[in-house]
Amino acid sequence: MIRHFLRDDDLSPAEQHEVLAIAASLKRFRMKTLVDKTVVVVFEKPSLRTRVSFEAGIAGLGAHPIIVDGSSTHFGRGETMGDAAKVLSSYADAIVIRTFGDDRIAALAAGASVPVVNALTDGFHPCQLLADLLTITESFGQTQGVTLVYLGDGANNMAHSYLLAGATAGAHVRIASPEGFDPDPGIVAKAAQIAATTGGSVALFRDPREAATGADVLATDAWTSMGQEDDGKDRRTPFWPYQVNEELIKLAAPGVITLHCLPAHRGEEITDEAMDGPASAVFEQATNRLYAQQALLSWLVNR
């Protein structure tokens, strides 16, 4: 049976643990686990880290990456996702796509006969979360029982992925967001259901200081996600109290790490001190995109 990775809860707790273990091994030993394979990587949204980490990672596994710019191909000119999936499946061993609505990647997966990987959608950013969990494991030795706090837009794809992936990992996930930017209730309920089986927990906060107290991880994202620039919403005013800064770091547990999926708007959602100081694991987190994605592709294609 073909396995896709469209959202974080597509991996069971045991499978997520297995993928993270593969990532740690790939980081240490640089194995070529996909020799002579081909992976198509489609970008309907622009990207720096996602593009470079997938292209370099696929090549590092011994496979051939084919990068497709969605804006200059049939993806952007009306071909259905189902039709594209059937054709690409005949050329490649896996399809990675960074796109808009989750309906688009669902349609692609429905028509594909090879694994489809979500490199970012409006709803989820699951590959980023694998990298984050790898970074947390490197810092704390495990993800089980770690208190993971996400501050900012609780309605965006990173918050949703933190809920699902964190709960799957057995973490205690706290989302701190202002009124009007709450996570999807369905995602919260699903995360709570998963957490009940893994020993984790899920909680929503309005007060960022309360959420940060005793935290092991303080994570955030840009206040305005790609595509939201012209939607007329004022995000700066409500999000200022949720900035990751020295004040929140002092409330957290000893050994706290700060995370940001990048690109960061320094001085807005995160300060220079939180990005560059001793608590920062931001750049290790960015490096781990490479190995987490390599591990996921190896796991999916070699099943």
Characterization of this structure:
By secondary structure, the protein is α/β, with parallel strands linked by helices. It has helices spanning 13-29, 49-60, 81-91, 102-111, 126-140, 157-168, 185-198, 208-212, 236-239, 246-251, 272-276, 282-301, and strands at 38-43, 64-69, 94-98, 116-120, 147-151, 172-176, 201-205, 217-220, 257-260. The protein starts with 12 loop residues before the first helix and ends with a helix.
Helix-strand makeup class: alpha/beta
What is the CA-based Rg, rounded?
A: 18 Å
Task: Give the averaged pLDDT, no decimals.
Answer: 95
Instruction: State which percent range the strand residues make up.
Output: 5-15%
Low-confidence stretches: none
Rough outline = globular
Strand order of the largest sheet: 7-6-5-8-9
Number of helices: 12
Helix content: 40-55%
Q: N- to C-terminal separation?
A: 9 Å
Give the assembly state of these chains. single chain
User: How would you characterize the largest beta sheet?
Assistant: 5 strands, parallel
H and E order: HEHEHEHEHEHEHEHEHHEHH
Number of strands: 9
Binding site for carbamoyl phosphate: 98, 125-128, 261-262, 289
EC number: 2.1.3.3
Subcellular location: Cytoplasm
Domain Aspartate/ornithine carbamoyltransferase Asp/Orn-binding: 144-300
